[in-house]
Write a structure and sequence with these properties.
single chain; 288 residues; mainly alpha; 3-stranded antiparallel β-sheet; two-stranded antiparallel sheet
């Protein structure tokens, strides 16, 4: 089991006091498990939700003639959120390193993709590298934060998880393809098939409270990608960035982007496994 932060230990103790008398079967027990699941998911999303809330608030209330450009304000807010996460002991030191790696990998991709015209940001502010405002890297860090936190909060375990060296090769190929497809054949559909074949037999065990969910890992991947896609729609509506076909007016992001987010999430998952190696459930033989 991955160790919780000190704050999480206090919250967990308080939650156990509240739930001590909850039934262990029937409709009420199911409702309690569902409530705990939702609360844990919300807790895992705290970094991403906070950043998305700031982006929406800036769209609604940040004045155009403010002394600080909106993009710079978003960057400052993102830094403050990250500081608060550390000061409040909402992240462990190990998690911070993988989040920083997400930030770097995301910023590199942003620099390339904006230069290639895949999407654009408003040309305001000074806290930027070329056409990329620095808050953009924190959006990738938010995904990383969710990944490492959900791994710990649900004490994830896996049956028939593929060897990490193979998953690393696939993840590296996905990341390279995000750049290379501008010059050579786009291999995303080949990579999508590779992901499906690689994780097809993997089952994830997620401990909620008394119960443990068991579901195909690919189904969990699709679910997370859908939520990221929803957040992307909110972010583009709020004007954080825009795709070429949104420059004349906002409309929902193309559903084809869901494939891109699914593949990028695979990169995220593999990076997290090098911080938290996949473990077999306690009831499974160690070799599995």
């Amino acid at each position: 089991m991955q160790q919780p932060t000190p704050l999480e230990r206090r919250i967990d103790a308080a939650a156990h006091r509240v739930l001590r008398g909850a039934p262990d079967r029937g409709a009420r027990a199911t409702a309690v498990e569902l409530a705990v699941f939702v609360v844990k998911q919300a807790w895992a999303c705290v970094f991403g939700f906070s950043l998305l809330a700031v982006i929406v608030a800036a769209r609604l209330w940040w004045p155009d003639d403010a002394a600080v450009a909106r993009n710079d304000a978003l960057t400052i807010a993102a830094v403050l959120i990250q500081i608060a996460m550390l000061a409040g002991r909402l992240e462990t030191g190990r998690e911070l390193w993988v989040i920083v790696l997400f930030h770097v990998a995301g910023t590199v991709m942003e620099l390339f993709k904006t230069d290639a015209g895949s999407w654009t940001y408003a040309a305001d502010g000074v806290l930027r590298i070329g056409g990329v405002p620095l808050f953009s890297g924190f959006m990738y860090a938010a995904v990383g934060s969710y990944m490492v936190r959900v791994y710990r909060l649900f004490d994830l375990a896996f049956v028939r998880y593929p060897p990490r060296w193979i998953t690393t090769i696939v993840a590296a190929s996905i990341y390279v393809n995000f750049f290379a497809h501008h010059f050579v054949w786009d291999l995303r559909w080949v990579l999508l098939v590779a992901v499906a074949l690689l994780w097809a037999r993997t089952v994830m065990h997620a401990r909620v409270w008394r119960r443990t969910l068991r579901l195909p890992l690919l189904a969990a991947y699709v679910g997370v990608a859908l939520f990221i896609y929803l957040a992307e729609n909110i972010g583009t509506w709020a004007g954080a960035w825009a795709y070429p076909d949104q420059l004349d007016g906002w409309h929902p992001v193309s559903i084809t982007k869901l494939v891109s987010w699914f593949l990028l999430m695979i990169v995220s998952v593999v990076m997290v496994t090098w911080v938290y190696p996949p473990q077999a459930p306690a009831t499974e033989p160690a070799g599995r």
